[in-house]
Amino acid sequence: MAKVIPTGPFHPILEEPEFFKFHVDGETITKIDIRIGYSHRGIELLSEDKTWDQVPFLVERICGICSYSHPYGYCLAVERLANCEIPDRAKYIRAIVAELERLHSHLLWMGLAGHFIGYNTVFMWVWKWRELVLDALELTTGNRNHYANIKPGGVRRDIEDYMIPKLEKWIDELEPKCEMLIKVVMDDPVLHARLKGVGVLTKQEAIDYCALGPTARASGVAIDARADHPFDAYPLLDWKVISLPDGDVFAKAAVRLLENLESIKIIRQAIKKLKPGPIVNEIKEVPVGEAIGLYEAPRGETFHYIRSDGSNMPIRHKVRAPSYMNILTNELSCVGADLADGGLITAAHDPCYSCTERLSAVNDSIPENVLNSKEIARLSREKTKSIAEKFQLESNVTTDKK
Amino acid sequence: MTGKEIKKKLEDKFGDRISVEQGAIDKQFFILVKDIRDNRDVVRYLFKELGARMNIMTGIDTRNGVEILYHMSFDKYNCIFTIKVLVKKPFPSIDSITDIVPGAKWIEREIYELYDVKFKGHPELIPLLRSDTRPADYFPFQREVKESHPTIRTKEAEMKEK
């Protein structure tokens, strides 16, 4: 008989507010109900009350991790509407900060995923290396998060000459570590056994559900707004879109790991191409009309639609973050999986709830038998442990004489 | 295929039922659908036959009614088409596209919650974001509600103050 296991309203891994109801038959998930809305703040409505130059500071606060992606998408839309070409130096500065943010986001997710499946070493290493990226962001923009570095028409803060050697040194330090991480994950038999074939999203499902970013690319849909809808510096740099056909949690992790190297490649080229010059081309007036800005955030494409009546504020500003489309794919990818994997699958596309809901609400009716985050995490770690023990037994037959 | 070729294909297929305009830049196009019953046909043609991807839908409350925009992008051809449909008030309602694009389930629920637009044929049309304690007849993005809202200044209200 099917039973319902409510999980939430906090995600067991990411500790973000959402509520999943797993319908289970034994230990197998047969259906999932998703309830969101716990961190909806009405940013779209607030945005209609801000001037064109104030909106980037607001949309930056949609998400702490994609705090460069949202203003980037918005600025692209405004620049297109105002028909403004930004200076070359600003293009490369944008690329450097944007790719540093991607590294930071991917490493953060990798650490959390490692922690959840019981690989605490991965968690500690990766978060240590992530500090390098955060230091680089602090150096170039002045802040570890919420950089406030982008504005319609260019950037607000220049990368000074003295910053470049430090930035290069940190990137050189990070690259072998990212490569090592790829080897560790790709060669680990326990991770293969634990993550392969778990939470599969097929290519057709990804297309039907309009999945985005690493979730789509791990299912063989090679979409990337930086390549498909080229803007700013990206068409001038040499990099490639990473795509894998499997659609499982392993592929989603692998796509992110391989993208780290591409980001490093982009940053190196962009640093070399930085030439002295202006960093902003001021936009005097935004004409009547409407425009769309598409930017590839670490989790997928961010979508910003603006409509102007010729005044100093947008009359409508629609924001769609990638997680909005990706969280819905859980309806498909969780079905048939073990309950121990439920938490992992729902976290595999790196969901961001603040992005998805842009009112605070309290659910008064707390069900009695809520499986708390520790329980879910324990189930997941036990599963990894049992797989590891199996491997240990097989490999220790000859070596372990005790 | 370029955006202009897709525009031509659309004009050949639907004739007078739609009109296609170019937006601020040459990669962005806007399709005005005259009869709201045609929305499913146009979405199906773009999504199923031409292979577009649905980015999202937007609702905008205007004087004449609620505008529903379907943003469809062609990733291979670097262009975006936006289908515009005007849903008349009072009691705005339009056919759901969730059986064509399953990814539109949440956004239709969100537009219903914010603008009170009923999507006929949606499998589960319940509010997406609001708490259980919020009144069921409160639609925050409706023009009338927005204008009466104490914290949000509208441009008309600002003009009156001056």
Considering the chains and any ligands shown, give keywords for the structure.
heterodimer; A: three-stranded antiparallel sheet; 16 helices; 49% helix; disordered C terminus; B: 162 residues; alpha/beta; Beta Polymerase, domain 2; two-stranded parallel sheet; 7 strands; 29% helix; globular
Question: Would you tell me the overall average pLDDT of chain B?
Answer: 86
The name of the CATH topology of chain B is Beta Polymerase, domain 2
How far is the N terminus from the C terminus of chain B? 52 Å
How far from one another are the termini of chain A? 45 Å
Q: Please count the helical segments of chain A.
A: 16
What helical percentage do the residues of chain B reach? Answer: 25-40%
Give the number of domains of chain B. Answer: 1
Number of domains of chain A: 1
Which structural class matches the secondary elements of chain A? alpha+beta
Q: Determine the strand fraction of chain B and express it as a percent band.
A: 25-35%
**What is the molecular shape of chain A?**
globular
Would you mind describing this structure in some detail?
The complex is a heterodimer of chains A (402) and B (162). Chain A is of the alpha+beta class and 402 residues long. Chain A has a single domain (43-324), classed as Cytochrome-c3 Hydrogenase, chain B, CATH 1.10.645. Chain A has 16 helices and 8 strands. In chain A, the strands form 3 sheets. Chain A has a 3-stranded antiparallel sheet with strand order 1-2-3. A 3-stranded antiparallel sheet of chain A has the order 6-7-8. In chain A, strands 4-5 form a two-stranded antiparallel sheet. The longest helix of chain A is centred in the first third of the chain and has 29 residues, at 88-116. The termini of chain A are far apart. Chain B is α/β, with parallel strands linked by helices. Chain B has one domain (3-153): 2-Layer Sandwich (Beta Polymerase, domain 2). Chain B is 29% helix and 28% strand. Chain B contains 5 helices and 7 strands; from the N terminus they run αββαββββαβαα. In chain B, strands 1-2-5-4-3 form a 5-stranded mixed sheet, with helices on one face. The longest helix of chain B is centred in the N-terminal third of the chain and has 12 residues, at 3-14. In chain B, 39% of the residues are buried. The mean pLDDT of chain B is 86. At the A-B interface, β6, β7 and β8 of A face β3, β4 and α3 of B.
